[in-house]
Backbone:
């Protein structure tokens, strides 16, 4: 499976929660810290149209912004089916 991109920041609780779910489900992803990488920050805003994080981009084109655990899990399970 192609890699998921997660745009987030270490101080963001929703980002830590989403990364935790990805880790628990053993899903490969690339983490882009928007506090360190200003190009990633600009890209996350371009993709989502807002400044909220995390922005999770799936290779198939799906984008989740600040997803709840059920939303993220549903998308991950749909990908693995």
Residues:
């Amino acid at each position: 499976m192609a890699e998921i991109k997660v745009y987030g920041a270490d101080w963001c609780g929703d980002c830590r929660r989403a990364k935790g779910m990805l880790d628990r489900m053993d899903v490969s992803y690339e983490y882009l810290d928007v506090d360190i990488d200003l190009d990633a920050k600009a890209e996350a805003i371009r993709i989502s149209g807002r400044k909220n994080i995390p922005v999770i981009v799936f290779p198939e084109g799906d984008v989740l912004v600040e997803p709840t655990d059920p939303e993220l899990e549903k998308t991950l399970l749909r990908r693995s089916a």
User: Anything to note?
Assistant: The chain is about 45% helix and 20% strand. Helices lie at 13-24, 38-48, 69-80. The mean pLDDT is 94. Residues 13-24 form the longest helix (12 residues).
